[in-house]
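Worked example 4.2. Below are the chains of a multi-component assembly; read each line carefully before continuing.
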Amino acid sequence: MSQIEFKNVRHAYPPPPGQAPVYAPKEASPTWEDGGAYALLGPSGCGKTTLLNIISGLLTPSEGSILFDGQEVTQLPTTERHIAQVFQFPVVYDTMTVFDNLAFPLRNRGVAEARVKQRVTEIADMLDLSDRLGQRAAGLTADGKQKISLGRGLVREDVNAILFDEPLTVIDPHLKWQLRSKLKELHQRIGMTMIYVTHDQVEALTFADKVVVMYDGGVVQVGTPVELFNRPNHTFVGYFIGSPGMNVLPCTVDHGQPVFANTRLESGYPVDKNLSGKLEIGIRPEFVSFSDDGIPVAIEKVEDLGRYQVVTVRHEAEQIKMVVGEDQAIPAQSPKISFAADNLLLYRDDWAVETEHA
Amino acid sequence: MLKTTNQKAWWLVTPVLLLVAFNAFIPLMTVVNYAFQETFGNNQFFWEGTTWFEKVLRSERFHDALGRQMLFTGMILVIEIPLGIAVALSMPRKGPWVSVCLVLMALPLLIPWNVVGAMWNIFALPDIGLLGYSLNSMGFDYNFTRQPVSAWMTTVLMDVWHWTSLVVLLSYAGLCSIPDAYYQAAHIDGASPWAVFRYIQLPKMKRVLTIAILLRFMDSFMIYTEPFVLTGGGPGNTTTFLSIDLVKIALGQFDLGPAAAMSLIYFLVVLLICWVFYTVMMRNEDQ
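Applying the procedure described above to all two chains together yields the following structure tokens:
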């Protein structure tokens, strides 16, 4: 087990002739602490899988270097890095039994047969595969096969980290929950570094201690789920995390206060007067409420989601989503809204403006 | 429940029935006709029962031809299948060389059988052919028209040259259909190149290889034109395979009865071997 460090790593697949290479990831320098449970979250095509393959050595980055515990491994082949990786679609060795499949990574490394048996039994128990160990792997259903893939990732003891590349895509929802909590439980038991790639925020937030959000090939924020919710570093994190996502509204700054819709907004922190660039305020729908006095809006849509209601309102061109408690009344005439001062964030060119007490 | 009985739909299958009848069943039945009777021309037939079958099955000539045929087919399968897989494995999976390789591989398959025979005949001539002349000048005593070993070597080599490509193309198609994730997973699992071949590539190629072996088996078991042009079945009878022998009996000696009986036995042998092989290969597939 070790700490994994990236130094200015970026990668581009060979571009079509005459075009500039597109880097994904571009300039990623995250550090993965030993024993952490990380989720790598981002939309499809932002370079998540590439980043994983760079860690495991399936891919050599075009630039930069990777360090395991301070040691350079950029040029080391996969087998010498001691990384386990589980892929999005199940990979099983068709001709082998379930047992042999799970034993394969151990046998390849010359682990003693008694130990192999012990490990495989243990892992099979955990994944509910015990009663199928003698069966041919080819005969299993998609989720059975994916469990084998997971098992092959978990069975080794010598690994530096286990990487999961959207491993639960093919598994049905009910089993997904179970397996995810199994992984979480396992992480707490053995304390191995785990990096879990997903584009599903619920999956990321429930699995990880720390979530790494990627956008457009770059890492935009690394933080705990609470940090990502309360202080998104980038407007993308704002709308990608949370349901519905954060409201991002154009604003100006006047005398150290953000101004939206001709209304000076109270904010939790003093704003530099000389800000320039594209300025926006970010406010989570949870922190928008109806008030007697504030920004006049028109109500467009009310969605009742049971425990709460999502109300879409409009002020001129801007649409604002707000979360209103089930028991709260929605004003029928000339509604006005206000924003909670402590949760109002300011963004310049999509990046959060540094605050003194954040 | 009232159900109208309407048999008119049977008319819809008549075209295919007619096609199969004229294409396969009736010709086969004329062969059956000859196999159980004796004829002296004039459309006069005399019932002979199983005489011809007994005669063929007991004849040493048939045993010898069948033996040679088995040996030949066995040899070319043992050479072509591993060689084909090896070539397919070493072909590039992407890049500009893919199409070059594919075209090169497809070339021998496009040449007509008798041309292949003629080419190799000239190529192997001991006095002027490139192969024959080179072998002789290197000190090998090589003459495919006189020595059985030379004749066999040339025939096998010719078949390998002509048909290995088919195995290559089929194996290559099988290899290309393996998703990258399998290789990546094998890498992560620390599999050796041999393990990758044994546990990923070979199992994934199983279906195409089954087809390749079946095709090569059937074609080589029925081979006629190439050895006929190359060696004419000689020297002596040493390269007289089943088809060549059959033609000699039917058209050379005009022994229609034994020839018909032999055709049926020949046909049943091919059918039986194909069926057994396919059943054995596919027994675990539907799980």
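Take a moment to check your reading of the output against the notes. Chain A has a mean pLDDT of 82. Chain A has two domains: 4-235, 244-352.
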